[in-house]
Amino acid sequence: MTTIEEPTTAPVRVAPAARPPGGRPGERRAELAEFLRVRRSRISPADVGLPPGFRRRTPGLRREEVAQLAGVGVTWYTWLEQGRKIHVSVQVLAAIARTLRLDDTEREHLFRLAETPALPAAAETAVVPDTVLEIMTALEPLPASLLNSRFDVLARNAGYRRLFSDWHDGDCELHNVLWCCFVEEHTAERFLNMAETLPRMVGTLRASFAHHLGEPAWTGFIRRLSQASPEFAGLWARHDVAQPADTTKRFWQPGVGVLTLRSTSLAVVGMPETRIVTYTPADEHTRRWLHAA
Description:
The chain folds into 2 domains: about 25-115, 434 Repressor (Amino-terminal Domain) (Orthogonal Bundle); about 125-290, Beta-Lactamase. It is α+β, with helices and mostly antiparallel strands and about 290 residues long. A 5-stranded antiparallel β-sheet has the order 2-1-5-4-3, with helices on both faces. About 40% of the residues lie in helices and about 10% in strands. The protein has helices at about 25-40, 65-70, 75-80, 90-100, 105-115, 130-140, 160-165, 175-185, 185-190, 195-210, 215-230, 230-235, 285-290, and strands at about 145-150, 155, 245-255, 255-265, 275-280. It starts with about 25 loop residues before the first helix and ends with a helix. The protein has 13 helices and 5 strands. Helix 2 (about 65-70) crosses helix 3 (about 75-80), helix 2 (about 65-70) crosses helix 4 and helix 11 (about 215-230) packs across helix 12.
């Protein structure tokens, strides 16, 4: 098995930094060490397909077994569990989190204790509560989608699919509203006031980005979208910030004409950094079309 990291020298000692929130650096490392030991003790060899072996003096997996399963050097993992001051990559922590079968909350806790920016769960694997889906269904025929702070579409109702069903030849790449607006070829033809709406959307993304500095999922998305769209790159470089706000949007619907809708964002308390975006008719023509289905 290929190891992810294996130090060849003693851990690098760095000058003390400003005290992180939540305790002294030594306290944070001690808490990290204890957390890893406790979580390791809760997983039996049988849980991960290993033979039980003999003379196990403590329950759970041994350090070398965790290291092997995670593809991490044994020395590196031992130092981490001893609370030594070493720099751990996102990939190593993610591998350890998978091996220890941590859920999203536990994984976030692990990354925080290690003072390493965490990888957020991918949009396509996010678990949307049934209650949120039921609310979105109850809003029909009003279009509604569930977005995270990166504008990934986590869920959508029938009204939303009807409004945007013929905008793409296939599924919108990445299932992301900003990617659709800046990169999809025909969006500008259908989203009539897109030019006046996009700066606020990018400003909202920039404000959210401050909470995810250094996270590969975010930096990779920004880099890819900047490469695909010079327009986005220009707006991003302005460093404008904004908050989600009610906005009037005008869409061209073939065979129907211009639909004018008011978008409203509703925060979902049980899902941090997510919101339900609803579209309500701003004129009678749009209202009749929405209720004609």
